[in-house]
Amino acid sequence: MYDLEKIRGDFPILSRQVNGKPLTYLDNGASAQKPNVVIEAINQAYSHEYSNVHRGLHYLSNLATEKYEGVRGTIAKFLNAASEDSIVLNSGTTEGINMVAYSWAMPRLEAGDEILLSVMEHHANIVPWHFLRERQGVILKWVDTALDGSLDPQAVIDAIGPKTKLVAITQCSNVLGTVVDVKTITAGAHAKGVPVLVDGSQSAVHMPVDVQDIGCDFFAITGHKLYGPSGSGAIYVHPDRMAEMRPFLGGGDMIKEVTKDAVVYNDPPMKFEAGTPGIVQTIGFGVALDYMMSLGMENIAAHEAGLRDYAGAKFAGLNWLNVQGQASGKAAIFSFTMEGAAHAHDISTILDKKGVAVRAGHHCAGPLMEHLGVSATCRASFGLYNTKAEIDTLIDALELAHDLFA
Ligand code: PLP
Question: Which atom of ligand 1 is nearest to the CA of 124?
C-alpha cells in the first residue's frame, strides 16, 4: 500500500512553513526534496565513514570505496542494466551528455553529419551538440512536437537520414510532461544503424526504466531529481559504445599507469571518471534510489498518475489558464500561462505568498518556448509525496492570482 502520510513524514522539509503558510512544494522538476534516509546517510558518511575512494589501503578508504562502488550496482538495478560496468558515475545529466559529446561524438562526427533532436530538449541535451556544430560543422536537426505536445516516434525515425549519426532525445519533457516512446525510436534508429542517447533526467523520476528493454545506447540520469543529493548522477553506456569512447576528463583514477611519455587508461567505466568524485553525494544517491525502489516505481507512477488526472481535471475548469501540452500518458508536469498580461514570474510570486513553490521561466528549453510561441511559463511539477489537497491549494492560489491580474 502507498502510505502517503508516512511517505510525507520521511521528508522533513515538507512540514515547514513558507511565508506563514504550509509549504506546497511543486517544483520537483527542478529538484526534489530529500528523505531522512538520504540526509542521515550523508551525515553518517561524513561523521563516521569518510575518506577518499579507490586510493588508500586503510580502513576508512576501503569502507568509503565499498559504499561508493556499491552505488554502481544500485543504479544498474534501478535502470535494469545488464552490468554495473555499464554505469559511469558523474555529477548529473549535464556531465553525462557532455561526456558523450566529447568522448563518443566529437572524434567520429564530421562537418555535415547530423544529430537529431526533438524540439522539447533541455539545454543540457542541446548545448553540448551546439559545441560540435560550432567546432566541427555538425548539423542539428529538429523534430517538432504535435499541437498537443506529443511526439510521434515515427516522425523521429523518418527524420533519420544518411548523415544522421546520433539521435539524442528526452524520455520525458521537463516542460510539458510528454512521455516519449524511446523504445520505438531506438528500434527504428538502430534499424538505420544510428545510436540513441536518452535523456532520462525527468522520466526516471516518474516511471520504471529498463534500459535493456529500451535498447538505447546511452541513458542519462541526475541524482538531485531522484530525491538524492545534487552533484550526483550517472549515465548508462552500452558496452559497444563504451568501447568506442575516448576518455573524457584526464586525471587521477582514470589511469592504470602514467609515465613521462605515455599513459595507460583504466578499464571502463573508471576510464571515464577522473579525479576525486562526489563521494558522499553518490552514496546519498544510492540511498535515494533504494528508497524509491522500496516504495516501488510502479506504485510511484500510479500515485503520480492520480495526481496528474486530478490536476488535469482541475486545470480544465479554469478557462483563463492555458495549459501547454496535453499528450496522453504524460507525467505529472504542467506548464501554463494565464490569459491577460500576467507574466509567469508575477504568477509564481503570488503563489509563493501562499507557500506554493512552482518554477517560472523558460525551463532551459529555449527551442520549445519558441515552438510554443511563449517566452515563459509557470510549471507545477509533482513528486512522489504530493497530495490532491496540495493541488487544491495550487488552484486556490491561481484563482487569487487571476483575480489580481484580470
Ligand atoms: N534534462 C532534463 C530533461 C532536465 O529536466 C534537466 C534538469 O532540469 C537536465 C537535463 C539537466 O540536469 P542537471 O542540471 O541535473 O545536470
Answer: 10
Q: Which atom of ligand 1 is nearest to the CA of 95?
A: 16
DSSP E strand boundaries for 61-143: 87-90, 114-118, 139-143
Domain 4-30+296-405, second-level architecture: Alpha-Beta Complex (3.90)
Distance CA(179)–CA(170), nearest Å, equals 8
E-strand stretches of 266-367: 321-324, 333-338, 356-357, 359-361
Pocket test for ligand 1, best of 88, 202, 206 (most atoms within 8 A of CB): 202
Question: 201: CA distance to ligand 1 center in Å?
Answer: 6
Which of 1, 28, 125, 129 is closest to 334 using CA atoms?
28
Positions of CATH 3.40.640.10 in the chain:
39-294
Q: What is the C-alpha to C-alpha distance for residues 219 and 169, in angstroms, rounded to an integer?
A: 10
Burial 179-214 (b: 16+ CB within 10 A, else e): bbbbbebbebbeeeebbbbbbbbbbbbbbbbebeeb
Per-residue pLDDT of 46-79, as tens digits, reads: 999 999 999 778 999 999 999 999 999 999 999 9
Instruction: Provide the whole-model pTM.
Output: 0.98
